[in-house]
Every structure is written in C-alpha cells, then in structure tokens.
Amino acid sequence: MSVITKTIQVKTKGEDDIIDITDQTSKGIEGSKMKNGVVTIFVSGSTAALTTIEYEPGLLSDFPKMLERVAPKNIDYGHEKLWHDGNGHSHVRASLVGPSLTVPFCNGQMMLGTWQQIVLLELDTRSRERNLVLQILGE
Amino acid sequence: MSVITKTIQVKTKGEDDIIDITDQTSKGIEGSKMKNGVVTIFVSGSTAALTTIEYEPGLLSDFPKMLERVAPKNIDYGHEKLWHDGNGHSHVRASLVGPSLTVPFCNGQMMLGTWQQIVLLELDTRSRERNLVLQILGE
Amino acid sequence: MSVITKTIQVKTKGEDDIIDITDQTSKGIEGSKMKNGVVTIFVSGSTAALTTIEYEPGLLSDFPKMLERVAPKNIDYGHEKLWHDGNGHSHVRASLVGPSLTVPFCNGQMMLGTWQQIVLLELDTRSRERNLVLQILGE
Fold first, then answer.
1. What is the pLDDT of residues C82-94, one digit of tens each?
2. Which CATH number is associated with domain A2-138?
3. Nearest CA in chain B to C72
C-alpha cells in the first residue's frame, strides 16, 4: 500500500456555483496506478464544501435553495462583526455540508452510482480559486 | 497494511426507512482479519445517505421530520422538470447528509459509542435495492 | 504504510460548546512521525459532531443558530418517550453534521486553509467528557 497526493485547481464563478469534479478525481486515481483503495477529497478553506449529487440543472438550483432555507443570506450573522464581508451564511453552510469526502475505488474505478457525481460547492459570495487535495490510499 | 473490499446489499422499504448496518459492518471487519484501521462505508446512488444515530424508534421518526423541515416534499423542485418522479427532495436530502462514512477500528472493534449505530437512510420515494461498499484499510 | 491510533479527551462546557481541536490533531500527526497520509477523527457518542469552521466568536454563535432553525429545542421529539432527558434535538443535530472527519496531511502538515479549524461540537444539553479517536494512516 502507498499514498499518492494529487491536487486540483478550480476557478469558481461565485456563490452557488456547483462544479463537477468527478472526471478530475478519476484521472487522479488513474494517474496513481492504484487499483483498490480510497480517495479523500478535501477543500482547503471555510466557505466551500464537497458532496455528491446527480449533476443536472434542476438539482443545481434545488440544493442552494435548501441552503437558503437553513442559512438565509439576509439575516444577521455574528461573523459580520469581524470581517464585514457579507459571507456569514457561506461559512455556516460550508461547515454544515463539510470539506471532506472519501470515496472507495475498486479495479481503478470509483464506486459511484451512474447518476452520482462528485461536486465542489462554492458557497462564498465571489469567484474564488479553489485548491483541492486528492489523497489516494491503496495498492 | 492492505485493502479489503466487502459489499452489503440492503432491501429498503421506501421513504424514510432507516436501516441499522452496524452488525454487517462489524462482520465485514471481522472477515478482513484486520485489527487496526478504518472502514469507509459508501452508498452508490444519489437518493440515500449514511450517518450514525442512536437506533431507537423515537429518533427514527425525529430525523426524517428534520429533513422535512429543510427539504419539504410538497414544494417545487427543478429536478421534477427532468424526471417527473417526485423525488427532488430525496436528492437534496441525500446530498446534505452525504453518501460516505469513515469509522476507525482498533483491536478489531469499531470505535462507536454504546448508543451509536451506523445507519443507511433510504430517502427515495420507493423501495430500493441498495448496494453499499465497505472499503477496509488497515493491518 | 502503517496505522497509528491516538486519542484526545475533551471536557465540554455543555450545549453549543465548540472546541478547536486542530492543535491536538496536529500533535497526534507529529507524534506518528508520518509525513503523508490521512487522519480520521471520530467522536464516540451520538450527541456530538465534527466539522471545520473559521474559529471566531461570531461563527461560534452563528452555527448553533442554524442548528436551532433545523432542529429547534422547543418542539416535540419522539426520543423523549424513551429517555425523558430533553436532548432529542441534540441527537438529530449530531446525526446531521456527522461524527467523522477525514483530513489529508502532506509533509507532516494537514491541508487546512489558514482560516479553517477542526472543531468538536458539543450538542448535548450538559457538560460531557468526550473521547475522540485519531486514526492516522500513512507513511
């Protein structure tokens, strides 16, 4: 067994941008030459998150609407007292969804469903350059 | 160190069915003969999720009620425009809770609390055959 | 590659206490002498959870307010019928956020953002002694 680290850079368009990173993750595993193991995908930063979703336009609007119900933009956030940058809701949403996702792979293929893609959620209020780490453990 | 893959098949009863998979996961670890490591449990598909909960009837109804507050069934979902199968809320809930759970084990035992069970959440609107992967890394 | 287990004990102050465990996690990795791998942090128990957040006072109040919106304290919980200990909302919140977090490290350093700390969320209604496991896999 060994560990191989790959990185992915993603330029996001701003709030509620949801980017499919499945292909880049698959290429990382392919490049590792490993057949069986897990990949941990991690986003550095506290206003972005990772999950899986069926990547189609309806859900790409449905999911942010759910986040707006649980952490609305236009309410007061204590975070504003520190930074005044209007992204308190972004932080709360990111902490709820989480920055880390671990996916098993077998015979070089991730065990995703046909309609299940890995996505980066941009939750900050502006375009960002996001750095993701793929930590691949296996053999 | 090595990697061993086990699979679990679960037939769910439909929406809001919550299935305790702790025993099957424990048996997978036992079968691997490993003593120390982690198991990553992953559900293929975008309308199911994994977490831990105290497995008792009260919470098995409390948890879906929370999901109904954050992603109600009877509101409009963009997802309906694609499939018309009435499970937009199922997708949103699954992406929020997440498809992956990693649990450490030591001396062959998962480090769960006494009142903490590993569960599969069926969030789709009908009975499904679910395929779970246990990816066990350790020694 | 190998596996090393470390434990962290944390005495929490009660509901909505959020404890920064980044330094203790870093020390665990340092003590393992590993340079590259992943650490899985896991909290035993069903009324606590783990995530990352920018650790500043505003967000430490904003995040519990979000949890109060999705799982309010003062509504009925089926869980009360079993235990009568007034923490149904604690369980629901803990299952939503989740008990496990996996973070990659490279050159001995976790790949966290500058403003991103690892936190234990105490969601129970009273002070607790929490036992966390750090399962470190790497080389």
1. 888 899 999 999 9
2. 2.60.120.460
3. B66
The mean per-residue pLDDT over the stretch B89-106 comes to 98
Q: Is the pLDDT score of A82 beyond 90?
A: no
Considering only CA atoms, which of A68, A82, A124, A74 is closest in space to residue C58?
A82
Which of C3, C77, C79 is facing B1, going by the closest CB pair? C3
Nearest chain A residue (CA) to C67 = A70
Q: Do residues C106 and B7 lie in contact, with contact meaning Cβ atoms separated by under 8 Å?
A: no
**In whole numbers, what is the pLDDT of chain C averaged over residues?**
97
CB pairs under 8 A between A and C: 104
Contact yes or no for A62/B77 (Cβ under 8 A): yes
The backbone torsions φ and ψ at residue B106, rounded to the nearest 5 degrees and listed phi first, read -135, 140
Contact between chains at C56 and A99 (C-beta distance less than 8 A): no
Comparing CA positions, the residue from A101, A125, A119 lying closest to residue A63 is A119
Query: So what's the pLDDT on residue A85?
Result: 87
β-partners of residue C40 are C102, C135
Nearest-5° angle of CA B77, CA A24, CA C105?
A: 105
Question: Which residues fall within 8 angstroms of residue C109, CB to CB, at 6 or more apart?
Answer: C26
CA dist., res. C111 & res. A5, Å (int): 11
Look up tokens 């500058």; give the residue.
C114
- CA gap B25, B134 in Å, rounded: 7
Asked if the model's pLDDT at residue B83 lies above 90, the reply is no
Q: For chain B, how many residues are written?
A: 139
Chain B / chain C CB contacts < 8 angstroms: 102
List all residues 6 or more positions away from A71 whose beta carbon is below 8 Å from its beta carbon: A89, A92, A93, A96, C66, C69
At B20-59, the pLDDT tens digits run 999 999 999 999 999 999 999 999 999 999 999 999 999 9
Distances (CA, A) of A97 to A54, B58, B94, B101, B117: 16, 25, 11, 13, 21
